[in-house]
Amino acid sequence: MKLKYTLMVWLITAFCGSRLMGQSLGIIQGTITTGTQGARGVHVTVPGKGRGTVTDDQGKYTLANVPYGTHTLVISAVGFKTVRQPVDVNSAVITLDVFLEEDMSTLDEVVITGTMKEVSKLESSIPVEVYTPTLFKKNPTPNIFESLNIINGVQPQLNCNVCNTGDIHINGLEGPYTMVLIDGMPIVSSLSTVYGLAGIPNSMVRRIEVVKGPASTLYGSEAVGGLINIITKDPASASRVQLDVFSTSVGELNADATFSFKAGKATSLVGINHFRYDERRDINDDNFTDVTLQQRISVFNKWSFATPTGKNSSLAWRFFYEDRWGGELQYERQHRGTNIYYGESIYTTRWELIGSHALPGREAFTVDYSYNHHHQDSYYGTVKFLADQQVVFTQLRWNKVTGVHDLLAGIPLRYTYYDDSTPGTAHTDGSNRSINTVLPGIFVQDEIKFSRQFTILAGLRYDHHNVHGSIVTPRLSFKLSPDNVSVIRLTGGSGYRVVNLFTEDHAALTGSRQVIIRHALQPEQSWNGNLNYTRNVTFARGFLTLDASLFYTYFSNKIVGDFLTDADAIIYDNLDGHAVSKGITFNADASFTNSLKIMLGATFMDVYQQNRVNGREERQPQLHAPRISGTGTISYTLPSGLWSVDLTGRANGPMHLPVQPNDYRPEMSPFYALLNLQVTRTIETKGAARWEIYGGVKNLLNYKPGDPLMRPFDPFDKNVAVDNPNGYTFDTAYNYAPMQGAKGFLGVRWTL
């Protein structure tokens, strides 16, 4: 009886206690502000408690029926950093006001590339895609070239399985049609497009802006298919110290170190990157290294100066050195240039200088300038290739707003010196002569804002090439904003590209083929149309950004390389016909109040050239241009904010590949996907220091292409007449996916 009585009292007490606790409910209320105003449409939630609301027009919110105790309030909104604020609910009403800080990693930040002026992404008349290190940290890589692999419509493409030359394709167009800028300056071009991209470390990047479609009206030659503007960190806003080191299970080691400091009225940022990989791995047993062995170092230093007029000026320099080689496993340094063991060895030394200075006075004049010197000392088997390139660029810009007109004008001048040891710079008398290109120009642009909803942008550029003469490139864009959440842009324009021999024949050098140029190559011309739609959607548990584009580009005078007629040669000529790149791209970026973020992208395209052969039209598809491709990122942060999981990936549909006549290898690649998984643990310490430990697996599905090399057992073609009825020769250009397979990685970041 006593036991039953005790149990009954315990049950009654527990029941009454639970009823009393159930009545201990409070209200959390307050105001969310950004700057001096309340913020409308901000999500305020208590994770795990089923409590959530959205702020009103004055930024006020109320959360009712919140149980007593300590909770974490999560506040999130488009364009601002998510705040996790602990709150102790111990009375009927708790007032908590929160200030939101702008998040530079969001899609609607200030962009420059589309119009060469700072403007909100949604306000830009030209569609610009923005990506920051926040995205690239979800799949850590040692350089920008590899990081771009998770951007929809942008495809870093390796063109050689031995030396790993690479370029960047936008919407299926080859690397020479993509212009790569650093802080708006034409730093990466011609010679440096092959190996220089791998030397740009992520540690120096503040954000990357991508414009798809011709941008020659503002940026001149090479911006035919699109451009990528790598904007470096601002010393004034950079972390005082940041260290990032990671290693992979195959032996790669990457180390980044940056630190900033003040010197009087100036601020400075110093960044050092070192990458090392020296493991001779041969997964597919063809006696060749799967990827190149590399030793690479990059030093970057940027200064920012505040002028008496309040306008900022900057000056930056970078040094880059790389030693890379790939080839037979028996290859050693002493075999360089011999026919004992096949190897492709490249030494690269590069200097860069970038500056931008706002001139004093009432008018908005700015002087931009850059200089780079790129030297390459290389052997491709027994073929020696020495090359030297210097590019000097300067530009005077003027910007003025008057009434509804936002005027921009510029006078650019670009000088290029190029010399190498190939027939490309050889004279008819047998001597070697450098190529000197002088390209002055002038451009004007007027952005007319008729109303908040409707804007027209018109631009025109004139360049005079010392060989090709006058070149004119116009651009016209219409922007319609029917409401505060959607934008429609229609853009049309012309692009051009002058002949840059090295970008035409680098594939030949990496594949031991002879270069044949049929006629004097003429500059290419393109016309492009792009229809873009962007919309921001806010709902109860998050927000969504949708972006879709239709694109069509028509090329005349396209420079094409014939890889098929002669297995030992690449024949270059202007296309007798035309080429087309057309398609549609979709992007969706969703963020939920439970800290789940999803970014998905897909591209459907058709890239081909229509050629006249013996009076007959022939359609030839573009190599390395999948008709269907997609990218995806799924990220989740646990409510504590200390653990996060990232799944990133890319999928490519079948693409045409460079095959030899009667090749036994498929001329189309299969559908394949590359997935990467990462887990990150954040450790907050006292003061301003922060630790992150991260690790995971790259190429989670362990996908590897088959038969990347033709006749790897006879790389010097010594025995092509023996048991070789199809006349195959050694070839390295058949590539469409990484060769390493699955690999683990582990890293640590420390930020002060």
UniProtKB/TrEMBL annotation:
<dbReference type="GO" id="GO:0044718">
    <property type="term" value="P:siderophore transmembrane transport"/>
</dbReference>
<keyword id="KW-1134">Transmembrane beta strand</keyword>
<feature type="domain" description="TonB-dependent receptor-like beta-barrel">
    <location>
        <begin position="280"/>
        <end position="700"/>
    </location>
</feature>
<dbReference type="InterPro" id="IPR012910">
    <property type="entry name" value="Plug_dom"/>
</dbReference>
<keyword id="KW-0675">Receptor</keyword>
<dbReference type="GO" id="GO:0015344">
    <property type="term" value="F:siderophore uptake transmembrane transporter activity"/>
</dbReference>
<dbReference type="GO" id="GO:0009279">
    <property type="term" value="C:cell outer membrane"/>
</dbReference>
<dbReference type="InterPro" id="IPR000531">
    <property type="entry name" value="Beta-barrel_TonB"/>
</dbReference>
<dbReference type="Pfam" id="PF13715">
    <property type="entry name" value="CarbopepD_reg_2"/>
</dbReference>
<keyword id="KW-0798">TonB box</keyword>
<keyword id="KW-0998">Cell outer membrane</keyword>
<comment type="similarity">
    <text>Belongs to the TonB-dependent receptor family.</text>
</comment>
<dbReference type="InterPro" id="IPR039426">
    <property type="entry name" value="TonB-dep_rcpt-like"/>
</dbReference>
<dbReference type="InterPro" id="IPR008969">
    <property type="entry name" value="CarboxyPept-like_regulatory"/>
</dbReference>
<dbReference type="InterPro" id="IPR036942">
    <property type="entry name" value="Beta-barrel_TonB_sf"/>
</dbReference>
<dbReference type="Pfam" id="PF00593">
    <property type="entry name" value="TonB_dep_Rec_b-barrel"/>
</dbReference>
<keyword id="KW-0813">Transport</keyword>
<keyword id="KW-0472">Membrane</keyword>
<protein>
    <submittedName>
        <fullName>TonB-dependent receptor</fullName>
    </submittedName>
</protein>
<feature type="domain" description="TonB-dependent receptor plug">
    <location>
        <begin position="121"/>
        <end position="226"/>
    </location>
</feature>
<dbReference type="Pfam" id="PF07715">
    <property type="entry name" value="Plug"/>
</dbReference>
<keyword id="KW-0812">Transmembrane</keyword>
<dbReference type="InterPro" id="IPR037066">
    <property type="entry name" value="Plug_dom_sf"/>
</dbReference>
